[in-house]
Design goal:
single chain; mainly alpha; 13 helices; 0% strand; flat
């Protein structure tokens, strides 16, 4: 889900054109003569890595590069295009190998681990690609979908099913990665780790769980806390998802019909 849709982000950035900048400049700086699209996108990625994608605006990127806001629009048409370029760049820095390991399962697992590593390195990416039916126009991201479809090609799955499986994998990873982005933001804001946050709220958790009569959840302890870490949720879900795909292939690609709408 995008942090801001095109109209909101672009109106905000348009209002900032020509406004004085009060953000600190990047140490390296830039000049308009050296400006190009790649430099703009790299500056935006660095801001997102440090402060989250919500901190990225055309004005902020201009301040980082020490140029006028209007000069950016010669290379990037809008905030939405900047989002797309940021996603395309980070996925492009982690291409999947050709032809990859033998076997569909090894291929899909590799692709999932590569994408997960990307979200760990750049947690903000999940905010731009997850929970949306309108993904970024990012060829490097689309290459992951294409690679997964090719990994399953030749296993008696029709094209629509190939699309569904590839998108299912990406959707799972993106959704599982959202907590990484929230945790990164929380750590920047509070300077506390997840464990420190949980320890500080232990009494409140205990009172709430017992008062709400949650017999299973009230047994939540250190082992369950560890199991709920994003990394462990990723591992558990990845293997269950691959098991499900194996079952689909064993059934010759036949899917259960959808339930009738009554």
């Amino acid at each position: 889900m995008r942090v801001a849709d095109r109209s909101t982000a672009d109106v905000r950035d348009a209002a900032e054109i020509g406004a004085p900048s009060h953000e600190p400049h990047a140490a390296g700086g830039s000049t308009e003569g050296a400006l190009d699209q790649a430099l703009i996108v790299r500056a935006a990625i660095e801001v997102a890595d440090r402060e989250g994608v919500a901190a990225v605006s055309m004005r902020r990127v201009a301040a980082e590069l020490r140029v006028a806001v209007m000069s950016l629009y010669r290379y990037v048409a809008s905030r939405e295009e900047l989002n797309d370029l940021m996603v395309d760049t980070v996925f492009g820095e982690r291409p999947l190998p050709e032809p990859g390991p033998d076997g569909w399962r090894a291929k899909l697992e590799l692709s999932a681990r590569e994408e997960w590593a990307l979200y760990r390195e750049h947690p903000w990416v999940s905010h731009l690609v997850a929970v949306t039916t309108r993904p970024p126009v990012a060829p490097s991201l689309m290459a992951y979908t294409d690679w997964r479809m090719r990994a399953l090609d030749g296993h008696d799955l029709d094209f629509a099913t190939l699309v569904q499986v590839a998108i299912m994998i990406g959707t799972y990873l993106q959704s599982a990665a959202i907590p990484l982005a929230h945790e990164a933001q929380a750590a920047r804001t509070t300077r506390h780790t997840r464990q420190q946050w949980a320890d500080a709220r232990q009494d409140a958790f205990s009172r709430t769980m017992h008062a709400a009569r949650l017999p299973m959840v009230s047994e939540f302890g250190a082992e369950a806390f560890q199991a709920s870490e994003p990394e462990n949720i990723f591992e558990f879900g990845l293997h269950r998802m691959l098991d499900g795909i194996a079952t689909l292939l064993e059934a010759g690609g036949r899917q259960d019909p959808p339930p009738s709408i009554r």
